[in-house]
Amino acid sequence: MKFKIFICCHLLAAFFLSACSTRKAVLDPVRVTENAAGVNYRGSYPKRTDIIHTRLDLSFSWDSAYVFGKATIDAKPYFYPSDNIVLDARGFRINSVALKIKEERSPLQYTYDGKKLTIKLDKQYSRDQKYTVFIDYTAMPYKLKAGEDISSNDDRGIYFINRDGKDKNKPRQIWTQGETECNANWFPTINGPQEKMTQELNITVADEYVTLSNGSLEYSSMNGDGTRTDSWRQEQPHSTYLTMLAVGNFAITKDKWRDKEVNYYTEPAFAPTAKLVFGKTPQMMEFFSKKMGVDYPWDKYSQIVVRDFVSGAMENTTASVFYDKLNMTEGEYLDNNHEDIISHELFHHWFGDLVTAESWANLPLNESFATYGEYLWEEYKYGREKADLKGLEDMLAYLNSTRQKQVDVIRYNYADREQMFDEVSYQKGGRIIHMLRWTVGDDAFFKALNLYLTRNSYKTVEINDLRLAFEEVTGQDLNWFFNQWFLASGHPVLGIQTAYDAEKQVATVSLQQEQDLTKTPLYRIPMAVDIYAGGKVVRKDVILDQQNQTFSFSSPTAPELINVDAEKYILAVKKETKPLSQVVFQYKNAPLFMDRFEAVLMLQENKNEQVARQAMMDALGDKNEAIRQIALAFTASVPQEERMAVYQQVRKMALSDPVSLVRAAAVTALAKSFSNNNNQDIFEQTAKDKAPSVIKATLEAKK
């Protein structure tokens, strides 16, 4: 019997994502608008002034949510001579502006329109002449009006949490979020990823509070009035949007990587689990350092959990900020260890912080790599089986996004820069990086990344810098890959048919590219085809580069399976016709998680066939937790007699499966698929499980 199935079809993929929804943390805000009508190109911002170093002396008013600042900015013209400097400064009160020469200050003329501060210098400076301006100001971020001064309340740049102290269940905190261009709401600077500087932040707070900023804590000074000033200094340049500070009652759990400080800042109540949550960070730092051939380049690494964060996390240089879902109990850690978000923000310290996209259009050079960093960590720590589940989640997040819009990965016609923070820049981009790895091979892939990082350290880049690094290492022209994946929209839609001619002893694979070629490229896709026949597996490497293409292979015996895209690395929607016997064989014999996942999707579509149902029940014992969850949900689709054959197995899974989400799914299956059985003894035990997901499932089951 033959049947047709859409691999990654919408309904099954949506089910899978909902089944695994607690695995995935939100990483960054996603605010999407349509592409701007008539906008053809949004390039890099022009570089007129180069900020070399910024010193900020800061104090705060909790009542008014004001920032009292004194900014000392060392700068010079970027190339052409200039007699002025223009700084972004949104909603400030400017108290004074001066030229600083040694310890002397000479007032300077300036104009200020509430957004831009234009300072007239004392003379025209050349690119070889540095100058220092001093600005005494008050920043008033809560007076900025959403929809007028800023896009939304998530763009204030600096936030005062529980500033009046009336909420007894919430600590008082101050923290910042600079990406994309919100740091100009609390200190004068030049917006955009292209501007890099070193910095010093002197933060004055009540002595009861802890502070955190980029770089190292140089010293702390008691001021004699109940306040303390902490001086944080970063000697290596980074983009202005990565500057951060945080203030609050945080417990500091100390750790170490080699000779560098690694610290975890949490609310005191969560200090006992800080190392449980963040404790793999030094191991991640070691792994990424060795894998990239570039040691973690910064002075220290701190991770801080704050309340009411406007994003999931942010990779501020040396000081990543996380939303409060990472304030976890031991039980919550069982349901989601958040290693994906922790590894994501850490990997940014190479891709995004050390080497930074020069424009928001090139944002995937930051975010695609950080997303792929999650895959690399999973692969290293837990093996390819777990990593490929992570890759599947990313692929489905992209393919099933409600924003199935035709946009390039590197795109210059966005309506708003926040539009770049979407499943195209993150999940699709991460899958493209994975395809690039398989296209050139591991040795070339990591050697090229090393070249890219070392050549561009502390600089900004565009997509061609990445391509040139890969071309230099491989000796190949890779425009075809970058053009179709990074510089175009959409993805392949592959029709796949396999057949065997017994008389000619020939196996054939027919492939069709069915995507809309008026909007999406005709792809060039290298892939492997595995032919299982006579107890052996033979691999054939082919290149699909036509709209309709057939490949023929000699095979003395009829194949038990013809496995197209055998490495399961292609980002595509696949429409495959395959005999049920091959589907069952694929589930039982093909080596990869994705082999079994694709087979399980096909098996579910043929639930009227006993052999398919049996294979699905066998999947209850699959080594991958995602497939076990799918199999548990499928128990409701099998006849009573077959269902009862696995009843004891499902009971055991509810109690002792090593993955809490599978235990929860087993509890749900007992309630729905085995409702005629007395499961109360199981529910009494699962109600005592440490994992919130199991407890919740038990409460639902008892209703």
Structure explained in plain terms:
The chain has 703 residues and is α+β, with helices and mostly antiparallel strands. Among the domains are: 268-300 and 307-490, Neutral Protease, domain 2; 607-703. Helix content is 31%, strand content 29%. It is built from 20 helices and 30 strands. The strands form seven sheets. An eight-stranded mixed β-sheet has the order 6-5-9-3-2-12-15-14, with no helix packed on it. A hairpin with a 4-residue loop joins β24 (493-501) and β25 (506-513). α1 crosses α7 (384-399), α12 packs antiparallel against α13 and α15 runs parallel beside α18. The longest helix has 19 residues, at 364-382. It is globular.
Quick rundown:
The protein is α+β, with helices and mostly antiparallel strands and 703 residues long. Among the domains are: 268-300 and 307-490, Neutral Protease, domain 2; 607-703.
Defining key terms:
single chain; 703 residues; alpha+beta; Neutral Protease, domain 2; 8-stranded mixed beta sheet; 30 strands; globular
Classified in CATH, the superfamily of the domain at 268-300 and 307-490 is Neutral Protease Domain 2
Radius of gyration from CA coordinates: 28 Å
Q: Report low-confidence residues grouped into runs of 5 or more.
A: 1-34
Biggest pleated sheet: 8 strands, mixed
Distance between the termini: 42 Å
- Widest β-sheet, arrangement of strands: 6-5-9-3-2-12-15-14
CATH class assignment of the domain at 268-300 and 307-490: Mainly Alpha
Number of helices: 20
Strand content: 25-35%
Structural class computed from helices and strand pairing = alpha+beta
Tell me the CATH topology of the domain at 268-300 and 307-490. Answer: Neutral Protease, domain 2
